[in-house]
Amino acid sequence: ARHHTLARPIGNRFGQGVIRARKALELGPNLAESWTASALVAMAKGEDNRAKAESRKAIALNPNYAAAYMRLAALLLDKGRSDEALVYAKQGLDLDPLSSASIFSYARDLSAAGRFDEAVASYLKVIELDPMRPSTYRDLAMLNAYVRNDFVAAIPFAEKLVELDPGAATRIVLDFSDP
C-alpha cells in the first residue's frame, strides 16, 4: 500500500494547478520552485519519469531548496525505492531542520520505509515545533494502533487529533474490540 498519497486533485483544482505550474515555468524557468511545481503536476498525472527529471532539475538549479528534495523523496517512496528516498528526504531535512513541514515529511518517509521508531521520534519533534498540526496526531495514533499494536499509546494522540479537528472523529477509527 502506498503511504504517501499524492492526491490527484479533481476537476477545476487540478486544471488550475496545471495552469499555475505552466505559468511558473514561463515566468521563472530558472527557478527551482517552478520546476518543483511542475514536478508535482507530473506526479499527480502519474508521469513519474518526468516528475523525477523535473525534481532533479529543481535540485540542480537550487541545491538549497528543501522542498525539491522532499518531493523527490515522496515520489521515490511511492515507487518502493525507500533507501534512495530517505537519502533525499534527509538532505531536504538537513537544509531546513527547524521546519515542522520538513520534519513531518521526513517522519512520513521513515514510516513508509518501515523505520517506525525513528518516525515516532520525528513526529514528536513536529509536535514540539507545531503542536497544533492535526495530521501529526493522526499519524501517531495510527502508527501506534496499527503498526505497534498499542492502542493505549494511540489514545492520547487520537484524543488530541479530535480536539484539534473535531471532524477527524469520522475519519479515524481505532478498533478496540476483541478479535
Q: What's the main sheet like?
A: none
Mean pLDDT: 83
Give the % helix: over 70%
Q: What structural category arises from helix and sheet content?
A: mainly alpha
Could you characterize what this model shows?
By secondary structure, this protein is mainly alpha-helical. The two termini are 23 Å apart. Helix content is 71%, strand content 0%.
Produce the secondary structure layout:
Layout: H1 11-27, H2 32-45, H3 48-61, H4 66-78, H5 82-95, H6 100-112, H7 116-129, H8 134-147, H9 151-164
Helix pairs in contact: 1-2, 2-3, 2-4, 3-4, 4-5, 4-6, 5-6, 6-7, 7-8, 8-9
Report a brief summary of the structure.
The protein is an all-alpha fold. Helix content is 71%, strand content 0%.
List keywords for this structure.
9 helices; 179 residues; mainly alpha
